[in-house]
Design the sequence.
């Protein structure tokens, strides 16, 4: 399974082509579908920040996923998210993707939008590991093992 090619922008307005423009040799992406899922995303951030600082070649990103629609609404949504994130580094790693969500979910075998999904992938988009939901110590151990096996 591989991550689809998607044109997007981060919350600093920089255009990116996913997955090839992601900075890491290995990249962790957290996909969220609903605003309230940010609480689940936040359970992963301390672990991922610590892991990224001790693992050369690893980067992580948050991917809020929104149904494609009217371009003007993108501006409103992105502006709202940008104003709620004070740290520039967090805005740079937050890439909002506007897509046909059903097709996207099918491609990644995501059954529903009820929780967040976490993927470890190579720069070419090849997915090496996946999980869902809030961070747990066991999920952290599994992710770190997958990273060590692939770096």
Sequence:
């Amino acid at each position: 399974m591989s991550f689809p090619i998607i044109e997007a922008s981060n919350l600093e307005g920089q255009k990116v082509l996913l997955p090839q423009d992601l900075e890491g040799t290995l990249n962790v992406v957290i996909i969220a579908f609903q605003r309230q899922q940010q609480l689940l995303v936040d359970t992963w951030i301390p672990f991922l920040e610590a892991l990224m600082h001790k693992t050369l070649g690893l980067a992580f990103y948050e991917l809020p996923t929104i149904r494609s629609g009217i371009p003007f609404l993108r501006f409103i949504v992105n502006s709202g998210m940008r104003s709620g994130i004070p740290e520039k580094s967090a805005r740079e790693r937050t890439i909002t993707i506007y897509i046909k969500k059903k097709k996207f979910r099918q491609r990644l075998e995501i059954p529903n939008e009820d929780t967040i999904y976490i993927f470890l992938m190579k720069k070419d988009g090849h997915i090496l590991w996946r999980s869902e939901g809030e961070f747990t110590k066991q999920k952290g151990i599994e992710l770190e093992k997958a990273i060590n096996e692939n770096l």
In short: The domain at 6-150 is CATH 3.40.30.10 (Glutaredoxin). DSSP finds five helices and seven strands in the chain. Strands lie at 6-10, 15-18, 26-32, 58-67, 95-99, 117-122, 127-132. The first helix runs from residue 38 to 54.
